[in-house]
């Protein structure tokens, strides 16, 4: 039955719906999303070169045009489609190792074809393997602009994306969100000129400036993106300040007794950071502070003192850690400090028996538990706080935005929310903190407690394992304890477990006079704790472990660490693991075993570990190697990562965007609304935790 006039046929509708669903997977839901989906690179299809000339252009990707003189499927050395194209100057082979039956018909003898690809010299002369091509008629005009190549997804062809973007460009409002006077003062071009040039660059454009994104059109896009991010984060900060929080003004008996009972004096950096937190807790709006400090800098005691202020002021505090081992370390240490002072500390994790869990929940709900420590079990249904005044999240980058928000909401009542202190032992470089954490106050503990011994790091080939085993034997006989960390195997947790089990068996056999323990993520919490307790007491000489010991484990007598297949670990993880030694008075050593050959990134990482123990320097280099998206880990689940700006090369733009954001928020809210609507649409809500 013919389609009703004016209505799309059902098959066409389903194609449109499928296309829209595929675009949505790339985050392209509106016309403006499409217009801001800028090219990755460009292909120059504005000129055709004779095939004879192309023959001398090996290594480049020229475009040629000619008639198909032969098209055949060959079976040696493997099945492939071989098409010969000729013009009046010479001939060239197009070779397709993967092809469809329809291509054989499409590229029939006598058809005129325009092809572009890298030229190489094969057995039969010049050839292109898998060129891009189109069937043309003689005299068909060439494009007048470079052809954009867009980031794509499954089922989205470049032709479909180009058409969708071109259509969107006819429908959007091109009015600039920034005034001519502001653009002039910033020496930036107009939005419409920049976008149109980037989607359709004229042949005379500086291709190098387009490729390295230094072209003025790219500068405008980067600035707009950074400005949107700064506006959004600063607006989130203002919205937070508009909410109310419990005022926690009392630094009283508990806080003072706690400080007096500590067997050490706080460092100057700890005292400075504590003063910053204490000042926040007396404000009537919620604190949102990130506490950074290198491995072993003493963040836990500062967090405990913040909790003491909440308890002194008549409120509860909660501390959430990402793993049970880390949560248990915090619980033991803080309970040891707090319970003699009369504080009831509750413990809540997923592995507790039902009866224990119910008891803990009852203590929390009644308010009898003044401090609650646990894993993400704290945010599960059924956990209700009586008066939650302060939330502390350790290793905050390992929790998603949704999890941090859930814990904060546990203490929300009406417009009031608890204060929030987030801790991270992964130092965040200043540039990154200014860009991605503009909505947070940041405190830094930038000195280590006195008496910490520097850790010597050595990088050794895996072939020297026997030497390493002899070395750990000698260290153990001198009374030192040793960690042996097994490799991170991303493909399979079971494989990682097998490696740890095998290593444990090998070391137990090689060192029959030593006690060798094993701890891994698949063990029951009670078994894990028994192994850790034996190591803490000094009953175990060598502890073979997977990365469950990455954070929080504190055994001052352990002074030697071996990390197997160190090339498989990221920099921040290697730094965290190394931080498990050097916590006592003995000279400490970290041995990084690697498997040859090393790739360039692995070489950079291991060289960094050998050269420095400074967490901030390591973080800076890690950012260089990985880029901000990967570096920030789980924050990505709530943060629109920068697509166009690069924090290494565009720092000058970050500073400008931050200053303009402050000025617009103060003087021009209408421009703020227009700019955020253009760049973020409805995606602002994630920036608020």
UniProtKB/TrEMBL annotation:
Tell me the PROSITE patterns matching this sequence.
HELICASE_ATP_BIND_1, HELICASE_CTER
All copies of the Helicase C-terminal domain together span: 478-624
**Which SUPFAM superfamilies does its entry note?**
Nucleic acid-binding proteins, P-loop containing nucleoside triphosphate hydrolases
Keywords noted in UniProt: ATP-binding, DNA damage, DNA recombination, DNA repair, DNA-binding, Helicase, Hydrolase, Isomerase, Nucleotide-binding
Please indicate if the UniProt record lists Chloroplast as a keyword.
Answer: no
Report the residue ranges that make up the Helicase ATP-binding domain in this protein. Answer: 280-445
Q: Give the E.C. number(s).
A: 5.6.2.4
Listed GO biological process terms: DNA recombination; DNA repair
Single GO MF descriptor: ATP binding
NCBIfam families named in the record: PRK10917.1-1, PRK10917.1-3, PRK10917.1-4, PRK10917.2-2, recG
Q: Which PANTHER family match?
A: ATP-DEPENDENT DNA HELICASE HOMOLOG RECG, CHLOROPLASTIC
Q: What is this protein called?
A: ATP-dependent DNA helicase RecG
User: Which organism's genome codes for this protein?
Assistant: Noviherbaspirillum cavernae
